[in-house]
Amino acid sequence: QKEVEQDPGPLSVPEGAIVSLNCTYSNSAFQYFMWYRQYSRKGPELLMYTYSSGNKEDGRFTAQVDKSSKYISLFIRDSQPSDSATYLCAMEYNFNKFYFGSGTKLNVKP
Amino acid sequence: DAMVIQNPRYQVTQFGKPVTLSCSQTLNHNVMYWYQQKSSQAPKLLFHYYDKDFNNEADTPDNFQSRRPNTSFCFLDIRSPGLGDAAMYLCATNLGGRAVYEQFFGPGTRLTVL
Asked: What is the pLDDT of residues A51-107, one digit of tens each?
């Protein structure tokens, strides 16, 4: 069993749609939960992070963590073509080490 | 701009011919990482340095080595590349301490093994 599972997609939505991206994990020791965005031929860049359970909002993005279900989500409201990228979830363990999901490829059509 | 720089962006090597990938950072971060990312797969942590302390992941092949001569630079050496080592290699940095959640990634080096 992988430490982090993420649906690879691709996910194709029309501009303006609400997008839901999800990851499940198996290790209850994870404390920090991150979402990275990766454009083609670029390195990942941090979008949001959450510590432990709860919600966090930043503009059009909302990150949600449910530790009891070992499930995290990223919601994108009013999606734009510029949001088209691969979204990777990541989790921190054992201080300064990270597990990543394999990424969900998102395409927002104009 | 402060950033993480990787050279070269594209590297072609022959089967078994040693290759070195380079990473430099202007962020003055304590922690530097090397990840291997194959197509449509998760970035896989190979090793990281916290200052001069080297931390190897248990499943990182012996074929992969790393050096960090100073705070700014970190190198990935692949002693005898095999076809299975073709991948994108990502360097990342982290301030360390309480800021464990944020890594800054370079653009990656795409390695081709012929």
From this structure: 888 899 999 999 999 999 999 999 999 999 999 999 999 998 777 788 999 999 999
3-class secondary structure, B106? coil
Closest to A11 in 3D by CA, of A100, A101, A60, A83: A83
Interchain contact, A43 vs B108, CB within 8 Å:
yes
Query: How many angstroms separate the CA of residue B78 from the nearest CA in chain A?
Result: 21
Please provide residue A16's backbone torsions phi and psi, each rounded to the nearest 5 degrees: 95, -10
- Rounded to whole angstroms, the Cα distance separating A72 from A65 reads 4
B62 — alpha (psi -120 to 50), left (phi > 0) or beta?
alpha
**What is the pLDDT, as a whole number, of residue A7?**
87
Cβ count within 10 A of residue B47: 19
Residue ranges with strand state E in B4-72:
4-7, 10-13, 19-25, 31-37, 44-50, 53-56, 64-67
CA atoms within 13 A on the CB side of B73: 8
Q: Do A88 and B50 touch (CB under 8 A)?
A: no
